Amino acid sequence: MRSITLRNYRCFGDEPQQARLAPLTLLVGENSSGKTSLMAMVRALWDVAYGERVPNFKEDPYDLGSFDEIAHHRSARGGRATAFESRFEVDRPRRRPNGRPTDPLRFTAEFAEQWSAPVPVRRRAECSDSWFQHEVIDADTERLELGSTSGRWICTAAATPSRERATASSDSLVSLDRQLFGLRFAAREGRSSRWKVQALDNSPELTEKILIDLEAALTLQNRIKQAVRDTRRHRPFASAPVRSQPKRTYDPSLVAADAVGDYVPTYLAQLALRAPEAWSELKERIESFGRSAEIFDELRIRRHGTGGSDSFQVQVRKFGSRRARGPYRNLVDVGYGVNQVLPVITELLRDDGPRTLLLQQPEVHLHPSAQAALGGLLCQLAATRSKQPRRQIIVETHSDFIIDRVRMAVRDELAGLSPEEVSIVFFERCGLDVRLHSISVDRLGNIEGAPAGYRQFFMDELQRSLGG
């Protein structure tokens, strides 16, 4: 995603608020200013656009509540919004024959209330002069709207068989690309469709060729259809701000990603047992971060048997002066920061990890020097020339040390990190609403485009400390 726009959603009011998203995006601002809400919407939009399902706004680690808690409350007089919407933009992978990049593709979802929960009632994909929209009009009617340089059309049909089926019957959605394919298949075979087509403004008959051109223009769904099948890898991974509690001894469990990282010890143990080469590579990456953060030098899995079902321990150790090796210590016996950061860096460094990560306060319990090292790792993974698989990382943080390390990484061209690959989104309170400011970093690491309120608290505190 290159941007996201929010309207009438949580603390974002009727005026649309847009945030620029980059390979590395830092969300900064006061507590309860909407940073977590933005990340929750990133995942929700992915579910609607790519996952073909109704998003669950109560899914861990985001519990945003029911529709009444999510729709924006204007004021006592203004009341609550009856719907909220969000839009994202993505760069299309294909280029025009002249080598110039194509226009971005935009996807919009509007949510209304159904049984106290938000469900998508309007979905729209558009690029340049082409667009396609599905809308639930009422409990009995659905509507498709299509447009291109060839004309405009409206298709209506009875809902299937009710509004509930059209939106959230089994938490699944009929994707826009399948809607288009159904129309194209009916046109090619000369079969009747359940959709009644009406041409607008003297537009020609809706033919298979027009639908093929429309599909080619709106590649949001088709381009990643194969990727959607691997939801573990491509659905955004969301990390909770407080991770799992360490245990002295672990019993193997199901290896399924969770927000607090309960699965990570078993994942590491199974990888060490069943894929030694992959374990060796991941272990070295984790240890490299541990050394740069100065929190541990070595990591090991200590088994209580030789089988995959035997219990095990996760241990780390620190080197002393002159590389004197200290004893291995259990995760329970070391600083809390170690076991809190281990799930985060495991997700960041594993080759088969998710391509989009939503991280809430990954710096929690880390010493400032370790926070800076974590910022350096985020830069390495987001940079174009990263040796790791490229990822889009969105981080909610209160750490100046992470932000400063990112600025210095741009200045020093760490791993080829460019200013365009970094976005700082500042959440500014304005009464009951929040405004978003997308701040950039120039090639010298300086902040550009910051509003007057950015870092005002720190400047006031500095002035007070100097006796001003």
Describe the structure.
The chain is an alpha+beta fold and 468 residues long. The protein is built from 13 helices and 21 strands. It has helices at residues 35-49, 67-70, 163-167, 176-189, 208-217, 225-228, 231-234, 264-274, 276-293, 336-349, 368-382, 400-411, 456-465, and strands spanning 3-7, 17-20, 24-29, 73-75, 79-80, 84-90, 105-114, 117-127, 130-138, 141-148, 151-158, 196-200, 237-239, 298-303, 312-317, 329-330, 356-360, 392-396, 422-430, 433-441, 447-448. The strands form four sheets. A nine-stranded antiparallel β-sheet has the order 2-1-6-7-8-9-10-11-12. The longest helix has 18 residues, at 276-293. The chain is globular. The protein starts with a strand and ends with a helix.
The N- to C-terminal Cα distance equals 44 Å
- Fraction of residues in helix: 25-40%
Count the beta strands. 21
Uncertain regions: pLDDT < 50 for 5+ in a row? 162-170, 221-232
Any idea what the shape is?
globular
User: Into which percentage range does the β-strand content fall?
Assistant: 25-35%
Number of helices: 13
Mean pLDDT: 84
What does the largest sheet look like? 9 strands, antiparallel
Radius of gyration in whole Å, from Cα? 25 Å
Category from helices, strands and their pairing: alpha+beta
Biggest sheet: strand arrangement: 2-1-6-7-8-9-10-11-12
